[in-house]
Amino acid sequence: MTTTATVEAHGPIDFVLIEFPSDERQTEAADALFELVEAGTVRLLDLLVVRKYADGTLEIMDLNTLGGEASFSRFVGARSGLLGEDDVDEAGAALGPGTTAALIVYENSWAAPFVAAVRRGGGELVASTRIPASDVMDALDALESTESE
Hints:
Layout: E1 13-20, H1 27-39, E2 43-52, E3 58-60, H2 85-94, E4 99-107, H3 112-120, H4 133-147
Antiparallel strand pairs: 1-4, 2-3, 2-4
């Protein structure tokens, strides 16, 4: 009897810190994240909402108090344990005073079947980088302006 070894694979894991000028302006982003999770595009591993006060102190917000279904409150319990206190402190150092941020760790689950196929074929990732969307948009704008000249 032949057995095929199962190759456990995960998609790439990403971390993002998204700063908002206030607590009230997070709804659209929360809705978009919810749609990505529901579609299976990403798997949410951790989500913390952090407020940085004018004096520089940080507070991890209770997701239960963020304002119902149209906010990050629907992600209560999204805690894998990957984010630690040092991650919160590092995120806080990047935030402006008087802002609120979503600290999110997610798996690009759409990529898991590809990763599994690569691993079954003996392949391995040897390099990876993320190109910021703003860099891509700037490059495309620059190309477009030279083409229209």
